[in-house]
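Q: Predict the assembly, please.
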Amino acid sequence: VTTVALDAFGADRGPGEVGAGAAEALTDGVAIRLFGPAGLPAGRGVELIETEEWIDNSDEPVAAVRSRPEASIVRAARDVAGGGSQALVSAGSTGATMTAALFAFKRIRGVQRPGLAVLVPVPGAGGKPVLLLDCGANAEARPQHLVQFAFLGSAFSEAVLGVSRPRVGLLSVGEEASKGRPEVIAAHEVLAGAPGIRFEGNAEGRDIVSGDFDVVVTDGFTGNVALKTLEGTAKAVAGAVREAATSNPMAMAGGLLLRPALGRLRRTLDPNATGGAILLGVRGVAVVAHGSSTAAGIAAAVRLADRAVRERAIERMEEALAGSGAGRAALRERARESAEPDTQAG
Amino acid sequence: VTTVALDAFGADRGPGEVGAGAAEALTDGVAIRLFGPAGLPAGRGVELIETEEWIDNSDEPVAAVRSRPEASIVRAARDVAGGGSQALVSAGSTGATMTAALFAFKRIRGVQRPGLAVLVPVPGAGGKPVLLLDCGANAEARPQHLVQFAFLGSAFSEAVLGVSRPRVGLLSVGEEASKGRPEVIAAHEVLAGAPGIRFEGNAEGRDIVSGDFDVVVTDGFTGNVALKTLEGTAKAVAGAVREAATSNPMAMAGGLLLRPALGRLRRTLDPNATGGAILLGVRGVAVVAHGSSTAAGIAAAVRLADRAVRERAIERMEEALAGSGAGRAALRERARESAEPDTQAG
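A: Predicted assembly structure:
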């Protein structure tokens, strides 16, 4: 049984919804330590650790995590580091969750910057989610960060998502190795010669949902913009379809007949369904659920964390990074150039 | 009557389709000088200037434009600069078209980097297209480039798209002024205090299609990724709806009833419909139609170019830039820092 430290604070729908998510996740044989306010239901499989302090989106993450050791997310992260639980889940501030996890878990050996990976639902039959990273842990990336994201994402995809030899793409503005920002061109060169990874070259924006890649790697600024563009567009198009289906009586009849089939599509595209984002590069499992998560979304996030623990995701990422001669060489070579700044919350 | 220099080479569907587009555009009272191979239909309103040389996507744009003065796009751009026509349209290599236009037209006074602006169709009723720039003229942007894009885009939106006091957003990873890459934060600061522009703060990826902004400004790398992500997602969701509508007999019946309403949505989302991309910051009108343009797409691009000429878009962008004290001051202040490199084709 995996014990998950679940932060009940900070979710848009409040601690009650997170508590309901905890109860829903239990059916999968997970134990939960819930860090939240008094009064949340506990009992069979859910232990409530009463917490009165929390960090929200308006707080500056690094300062808040440093100065508020009793905040729910900080206590939950410490609980994992101390062995009281094996994975951290929160639907609160992404920045605070990343910072608390980074401080409590430390980085995997050799990793300079952890990256936030999001499982992006891909519409259409047989569409497996694509792992997109970094989606906002860092506003900028050096070539070696992009190379590390590629190895971390590939190992995670294989370990937790069950993809055999994941196809890794580097997000850019054209297929040619010469296209893109200087750091992208440099990372392409390293990845093209790296053993232990199936690098399929540059991916363009449209390739995030093309099904041609299992892992798409980019910096946190571009990844965040791409992810939100994708979510916004999917929502806008779905909304326009709904609008079209009420535009006249004939269309309304059609919409009614189509509803069950479209409902399946809507569930595929629901960002809740994939369990949210996961911080890769730290020595522990940390999952950030959508802020707007329903109980089902929280449960999905807990399940994702549980799967990462059971599949030994951290160990396998450590092995992938350590085993990649090319990755290591590139890192060493470039470590000299870079005085390393703090991880920025995006 | 506006005379448009139209490059017949480089389009995915070949010169014949471009010729058909020329004929279709004529109904709007435009004259066309068509730079293409012998045998294309000419006559009433279309003058064929026979050209045997061309530049395609595999050519390095700057080198090709410099070394092939007789290539169709180079001759067409020269024709505009020489006064034989008033606007340039091509469905060929974006890089070659931008380079030929930049060399032949020169930059608007004070502009350091021209930007490629795309009219992004927004789904849903009343969705006006949003102007997104830069979509790939430059892989990177300094703060002053982003500020200039904001003024160029705002003036173009007002002049050519008829938007009164366009709402301008700066693409970033959060609403707060402190979020994003350093150059975005710096540009935000300048724009927040700039007169002559309606700056509404940061826009996130989802805001490109939210309808809350008329102009969204970013660097060419992020803009290109966002645009292609948006196009890819719209296509994938529309495809999944189509798939859902054939998944069983009931859904098929529904799909048939919905078809007319969905057809209107498809036409709204068709990248052909808006006329493509326009290069802002050069002293002439240059429109890049989608490479896959049909005759209708070519005609839309010609109409966009015609509208830009009739509405004096260039003069109005010049006025907007010259009139913006804050913009000018920021430019001067930063001009010292930056030795200016060549424009890169993205």
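The radius of gyration of chain B is 20 Å. Confidence is low (pLDDT under 50) at residues 339-346 of chain B.
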